[in-house]
Batch of 2 targets.
Target 1
Amino acid sequence: MAKLKRLATKEDYIIEVLSPLSMSEIGDRTKDYDVLTPKQFGTKYKDLLFTPTEFTWNGNTHQIQYNHCSNPFCRYHGMPQTKFATKGKPTRYKLSGVSNHKSIKCNPDPTRVNGEEVLGCYTSTLSNWSVAQEIQRLVQINSVQDKEEEYEFHKEGCIAEEITPFNEPDGFYKQGKSRLGMQRFQCKVCKKKTALTPRRDDSITYNQKRSDIHHLFAKLLLSRTPVTRTCEILEIGRGTYYDKLELLYRRCLEFLERHETKPLQKLEFKEMWLNTDKMTYYLNNVRQKGMGGSLYDDVEENQFPTHILVSADVLSRYVFRSDVAYDWDITLGDIALDTVLQKEDHLNEFAKKYARYPKYSHYPMPPSANDTQSKTEYYKELAQVERRMKYTDGLHVGSTYTTIAHLWLIKRLVKAPEWRFVTDEDNSLMTSINRVFSKEIRLSDAHHFLCQTDKTKTRKQAREEFIQARVDLVNWGTMQGFGTGSLRKLAFLQLQELFEHHHFHKEVSTSSGTHLEYADNPILHPLATIDRGLRSVDCTTNLSSLEPKDVAALILNINDNATNTFIQQIRRRLSILERPLTTARGDGKSYIYSNFNPKYAQMAITILRTYYNFCFANKSNGTMETPAQRLGITNKKFDLKDIIYLR
């Protein structure tokens, strides 16, 4: 039987990220810190730019290195740094840009191999070390561990305190069972009685007060009931509310481990259509306890825009992950310790352990002997950091780092030889896909599509476009003499005809030959939607090897309904993540229900994701099914009680 579970913590080391620094290099950095200028120091210690970072997870070792070209049409896409064995030994990439915005540029290929052209692309640099740390964070917040109980079988001073019923059962009397059916033991020397903790299957509500409210609590949470109203209805305090939220979150993680992770390990999909999008909500930035009042008049912004990454299957609408780009466990003290040890204040961003925190990748240090920073600039920077320490715990994570970690974990969770990605024109999403799936894109096993709608249209305009698109499609089919009334069939035939001459790439001629480049040449999808009207579709990867009918079949499936539907569920079902309200004065927006701890936003979204995937059925192909049923990982619709009580 399974043990009781607890949420994983940083101390569990589920993923162990290996430091790329040796003790000798740390010693060298200490010696050079006062000798070199910051620019010279950063140049000397730039080797981490192309050095893979290693980490171990579930007994397996993984390596990541994402500083490479991210342009799918460039010959160097996804290829590592190397030196060519020609005159001067030129490298594949060179570093360029200013200190905080470094890029790598694709150098010309001296081998002059025929085929794809080197396009001289500029790609923003990332810290591989920090990407690994973000993968570690996302795994940790979505994991549970066995709860190991520490028993006291003896009174203080007992001469037999070294023995337990597990290693010396003869040293104890059995004293019956507790009301939960667990064995009691009594030491034969000091006569102390101790009852064992029940297993998970023995008591699902062990150590839980007010266990009768769990089901109603979950229904209120998923019905956009504010925290205060929930406490009034259930007659509980706020502390109990957040305890119940954590319990429900833990049960969802246990449920997902059993009904999502394990079934997906046994399945292999022929083709995976993944729709990824970002949602922004505003985190209330409040002072920590004891930091208020007139003595603390140095204020920060009242709201923090916070990103939530959502990825769902286009066809079944199953949501694989939903992650908040915020680390609530990090402290500026942790960053200060590593800055002192590793001298990270003089490094380029790509070499820093904490590069994923955009404004706080290092802690301000007093100017060194050859520093270019003045004391005035140092005190100004320090004041900003000290002010931040008075507010909400934790730090925002750069959305590119969270997206790369998010996609890397999905790639390990879902087995599929071919991938299709649908996003809007968000650079952090596009570059993340092009880095994480670079091998698949090079082999034409993965393609990325853009799907965008005009959000300024009114509902009336969208409906008019929807009706007109249907009329136009039927009229086109009649003129062409097709004997079908199926709009989807007509849309496919129209697209097939269109792609006889339309391409998403362009052919560019140079002195060395011709090559293909992204053309930025979108089309309007023939099937409009009633709520958003027509949408434009484009492809940023190379489709030149496919026939028009194959391209048409791909384009027909492109939509962003999967993530849009789930994001709407977030807005409509979770009080702390709903849209802002207009103030009574009418001159601004109010975020009165936004919480000040994104940990609770992560918990609430995971609870909603579990409910949405396994309990929320809707009509598809004439049958009422949940996303999990359509994906094929379960054959039944679950209930909230199945999740809460782990049936």
Target 2
Amino acid sequence: MSSTLAPADALASVSDSVGTPQEIDPKLLAAFDIPGYARRSPSLAGVVGVAEGGMSPRAFGSADGRFLQTLMRKLNAPVPSRWVSIGLRQALATQVVAPPGVNGADFAAERAWLLVRMGESAVARAMVQSIDPNRYTPKLYQVSMQAALASGDPAVVCPVVGAARAISSERAWILADAMCASLSGSSTKASTQIKAARRSAAARGIDLLLAEKVVGLGSKGQGAVTIEWENVDRLTIWRYGLAIATGAEIPPALFGTVASQVQYWRAQAPQLTETARAPAAELAAAQGVLSNAAIVDLYGKIDSDDDQGTAELGVARDLRAAYADPSRDARLVAMRTLWDEPKQPRAQYARLVLTARAATTIAPYRDAPDADRLIASMLSAGLEGPALRWQPDVVRGSNGWGMLALVETGGMIRRSDVDTYRSRATDISGVKVKMLVAGLAGLGRLSARDTDGLANGLSINFASSNSWTRAIHRAAEQRQPATVMLLAAVGMQTPNWHGVSPEALYHIVSALQQVGLEGQARMIAVEALARL
């Protein structure tokens, strides 16, 4: 079986009965007894407000809601950029006014579904829970099931399972009803429903056994179920979610049958030990799902554990030395060990994120052999101030110099400096030089004359226009930061940074800066130099 299934395949659910949420007209649903003062309007749904780091409630502006939903539905997530992913999560999670043309609950469902596909299982769960149960639409019922399974928390759907069964014929809801009955203490009802599900063939094999295992947990261990994976050839979201919920160990080979977002769900699963989560957590940190602080905290717990002899413990010990050893040279040795160990580019970038704050403990000095990686490490976590301290000591034209040129907010960059960077570039294709020019031009750090001259010399066409460039600049002109961030992700639907063109980077950076997201624009431009 292929190890690179498409997201739709990777997210298939129990017997493929819980599929991609469809466009369904809302129906009249049973009312819940929610006091008036506690009711929340679905027209202003979301997880975070401005005070918690969200965007403005009008971040999507007057953009057509149907257009936005189409973009979200067709977006092939995850995208290659850590900083685009972080910005898109912020846009999707923000408490925003529902744009014209869409139902507020449906718009929340579409955002949650994209968050699931991005690997943001915890945020997706919070998104569906931000809508009152009596406001659910058929689309939101479907997405709530996906968010519950991705987060390994089947109880998420319990408040709405009865209403969902009344309007949905999907077999997963039959089993969810039994699981929720057991979790609420109604073990007799749960047992009856499981038996009925078996007779009706609503599910069979491991899909049914995992549901029975959840029911067993709710009945205080009665009727314990043993899960055997020998004849299972792929991992579905149903199998993943219920296995995580019940502590059933998933064979590592099955993770090769799914897309990368499943590892990001795994990284956030509190049911797993820190040691079990660590490899997935590093990948999630590279993607932006986990922060530098979160991954360092995870390894700190591993370091204090008694589980000796694991590879994760070795990483934890090196990380402690990188952060806390009194000797600068010892800290650098520890960081080099962490940086040099991985062989895959994504894992290598994850280690830069891991050491970001450790890198700030190294005082700048001239001719430092690790300057480029120290600067890249700090900037992977957005630590611009400490990175800029290296500016007087960094070698002109080096990769570290290029990253700092993108971060510096004052003054213009001369063409002669870019030519020096070009002369020192080690990549034969010249991609890094093109990305540096695209980033500087998008940030307005090059004069128009230098931009034109460099673009012509490097065969870059910043003036090219298509439906995407027109859409992202129109959203920027109309001051719609969330729409711009969504379109930035649309412009990065490629497996890795090598598929991102300089022209796309230019338009993304330029539009983000125009809507006031200059910090994120700088970090995306820097990421291009760090990862190519």
